[in-house]
């Protein structure tokens, strides 16, 4: 038995999901004739109360499209130093949109309205890049699945309005935040101009992300997706997995959160671990004690059939998910309790 906690992206489609995929009614999505894709886009647009949604093969492509829609080359995006768009999209913001990032030194990937205010370059000071977009990530990935305070997001929206800045949400794991906080997609739709959500993380689909947003921004989204290489044909097979996941895998995220919380509880009692970041959703980040060699820790985990992510500098990451069963969870807790260094 392999217990793979490297990411919530390692899940495989369930039988029910595969059946839904096999039975999907499909057409050529480049002609917008795939009724399952159209259904998924309509459903997610409605959830967020936005006029438009567009299906993408990946979250990276959805974010990259959003950045392009909000900016012109030479401009600047405000985001946290931990942001996925800055750290893990291959330099795409500069490659695709010709923009730079002004990084905020936030707390677990989150910052305040006052941080944003201070990061805006004065528009008439032509020596600096023109600030045009604020990008938020919820939950924060590198920040350990932390959820934003919604009131702070509203305050940041007011700053965006006052300075005429676009407001984008990288909501790859927004589903986890909605479940944890008891918030609604519509609340987020009210606030942000564009939002990307992943189907391939906690929801357990083999692929797919959706970008939702307002008309003036989204009008060009399909052209940008095309330029990035993303016109797809009978994509209803993938969209059907998304529809199935929204029906069957959304509420159960609670279970992933409970397991992550139990891991946190055990980890905090262990002598070979010096710090566990507060767990809210399905990501657990912890630091080994200075005396424990990371390579040795990883080897011992591996010998027990457990795969985790080594983030460097003694930091480790676990992510709970759909394929992490109760049996695996109990074994994982036992192994953690019995390891010695
Ligand atoms: C995974 C992830 C993405 C990108 O999604 P891919 O489908 O892997 O391209 C974007 N943002 C965050 C925060 C993520 O965790």
- Helix content range: 40-55%
The overall average pLDDT, rounded, is 97
Unreliably modeled segments: none
Q: Globular, elongated, flat, extended or rod-shaped: what is the shape?
A: globular
What ions, cofactors and ligands are bound?
A: pyridoxal-5'-phosphate
Which sequence of strands runs across the widest sheet? 2-8-7-6-5-3-4
Pfam family, one: Beta_elim_lyase
Family: Belongs to the threonine aldolase family.
Protein name: GntG family PLP-dependent aldolase
Cofactor: pyridoxal 5'-phosphate
Record keyword descriptors for this entry.
seven-stranded mixed beta sheet; alpha/beta; 42% helix; globular; binds pyridoxal-5'-phosphate; 13 strands; 341 residues
Structural features, described:
Residues 4-289 form the Aromatic amino acid beta-eliminating lyase/threonine aldolase domain. This protein is of the alpha/beta class. The protein has 15 helices and 13 strands. The strands form three sheets. Strands 2-8-7-6-5-3-4 form a seven-stranded mixed β-sheet, sandwiched between helices. α1 crosses α12 and α13 runs parallel beside α15 (326-338). The radius of gyration is 20 Å and the shape is globular. The mean pLDDT is 97. The structure holds pyridoxal-5'-phosphate. Pyridoxal-5'-phosphate is lined by residues 58-60, 63, 84, 137, 141, 170, 172, 198, 200, 209.
Q: What secondary-structure arrangement, pairings included, does this model have?
A:
Layout lengths: L2 E2 L10 H8 L12 H14 L3 E5 L2 H12 L5 E5 L3 H4 L4 H6 L2 E5 L8 H7 L11 E7 L12 H14 L2 E6 L2 H8 L3 H7 L2 E5 L10 E5 L1 H4 L2 H7 L8 H13 L4 H15 L5 E4 L6 E6 L5 H10 L2 E2 L1 E4 L2 E5 L6 H13 L3
Parallel strand pairs: 1-11, 3-4, 3-5, 5-6, 6-7
Antiparallel strand pairs: 2-8, 7-8, 9-10, 10-13, 12-13
Helix pairs in contact: 1-12, 2-12, 6-7, 13-15
Bound molecules: pyridoxal-5'-phosphate (PLP).
